[in-house]
Amino acid sequence: MSRMGTEFKVGLFTLLGLVATGIAIFFVSPELFDRKEKVRFYTRLTDASGILENTHVKTNGVNIGRVASVKLDKVGTRVELEVLASVPIPQGSTVAVRTVGFLGDKFIDVVRASDSDAMLEPKSLIPPATDNGDIAQVIRQVGSIAADIKKVTENMATVLGDKSGEKRMQDIVDNLREVTENSKLILAENRSNLRDTVENFRSVSASLRQLANDENRGRVERILTKFDESMTEVRGASENIRLISQKIEKGEGTIGRLVNDDKTLTELEGAVKEIRQALSPVSKLQVGVDTHSELRQDNTSQTYFNIRLMTRPDAYYTLGFTDKNRRIIDTETETLDPTQGSTAQTRVRETIRDQRQMKFNLQMAKRWGWAAARLGLFESSGGVAGDIYLWRDRLKISMEAFDFAEKNDEDRRLAHLKAYASILFFDHLMATAGIDDPTRLDPKTGQRRKEPNYFLGAGLSFNDQDLKAFFGLATVAAAR
Predict the structure, then answer these.
(1) Which of 1, 35, 95, 309 is the Cys-Cys partner for 317 at CB 3.0 to 4.6 Å?
(2) Which stretch of 170-179, 203-212, 411-420 has the lowest confidence by average pLDDT?
(3) Separation of alpha carbons 95 and 42, rounded Å
(4) For the segment 144-164, what is each residue's pLDDT rounded down to a tens digit?
């Protein structure tokens, strides 16, 4: 019986030990018996010291999971979090490493965002908080503050800890004593002046009381009344401004539609863009001025003045004028002896006179590389021309046809043709040579002239930069 009692006691003690061990395991690691659904998230920490597997994960002070794994990756430490699926984690939430007391036990705190209704998907990243307010961080800050205080005390000890520092402190005390003594002397010497100053303040206050009589009080009241009326008008104006701003905000009126209607803004932007495109050629306009004179073989001369407006590299317009010298021959037949009838001798008298005429040029040109074509008015008559540019545009070969002949024209049978070449020296000097009007008829014979009418010319050429410099110098000279 006693043996059975001993075996019973040993078995009972063993059973109680197993039960106590199971209870301890349940309280120490309750997650072993937790069968609730969990989801995983992860975060990346630059410092994961104190974070181990099975470290608690909390939110608002409540345990919601544990750390599943801690692994190093290329950019930091990847910490896998296993939390209850029933706990919502909104987007914008962050994690922070917290410390429990001063013992150093750490846990991960999920700081859930309160301004987001969307939830994070499982296996998503929860970024770390920029400022976690950890006790360890506070301790580090206190340590840095203590280090700064230590430096200050060390500096003070260096400055004041030796005999020279004691002398400085004694000098400061002596200076304070001297200042107080000087202050006493000043007050003693100027006591009467202070009495006078107080008396002046007393008289000023009495004068102010005299000014504050009934008449002046009425004036002040009237001024305040006017001020109240002005403030009423200001309030009315501010109310009108408020009503106008409300109308603009509601999209009423032209300004309201302009501010609130995107279509109106789009149309306005399009109009501004079209205006900018229309004015773009003008902003890129380049101006050139050419003037030259020509001396022909028939002893006539002609001077040209042209302005070239280049809106694009491949297009330009020419405006100008020229003084056309036209030679007119008047023929008069005179009978020497009218009494002899048909056998009477006659004498032909010719009168040659030069007539100067002003002619205008108005042409538009289009250029294709080294070739160009012109169309418009040539010496006040319609015509066409072709140009060839060589040697970086310094040499130009031109052919013009204008003043086309009409039926039974006494001057020519085809048109006024002109072929010439012009060359530019030193960017401004221009020389030209060519042949003018080779199809012109001789007024004496009525046939085409046998000798071509060659000509030579010279002149000047300027661009817009030269003109700006010239006018700038002229302005400076005029200012002097």
Answers:
(1) 309
(2) 203-212
(3) 10
(4) 788 888 888 777 777 666 777
Pick from 455, 439, 318, 429: which is nearest to 373 by CA? 318
- Indicate the average pLDDT of the chain: 80
- Asked whether 363 and 317 are in contact (CB, 8 A), the reply is yes
Contacts of 260 (CB under 8 A, 6+ apart): 248, 249, 250, 251
Q: Distance between CA 458 and CA 93 in Å, rounded?
A: 85
For 41-52, the DSSP string reads EEEEES--TT--
In DSSP terms, 327 is beta-bridged to: 354
CA distances from 313 to 162, 284, 334 (A): 85, 10, 62
In angstroms, rounded to a whole number, what is the distance separating the alpha carbons of residues 121 and 132?
A: 24
Fold topology of 284-476: Porin (2.40.160)
Strands 105-111, 286-296: pairing is: unpaired
Read off the tokens for 284: 């890129």
Instruction: Give the β-pairing of 56-59 and 105-111.
Output: parallel
Contact of 415 with 439, CB cutoff 8 Å? yes
Contact 365, 373 (CB under 8 A): yes
**Distance between CA atoms of 319 and 344, rounded to whole angstroms?**
57
pLDDT per residue over 451-461, tens digit each?
888 999 999 99
User: In the numeric block, which tokens belong to residue 395?
Assistant: 């040499």
Contact 314, 366 (CB under 8 A): yes
CA 205 to mean position of chain CA atoms: 61
**3-state SS class at 361:** strand
Closest CA to 362 of 399, 316, 417: 316
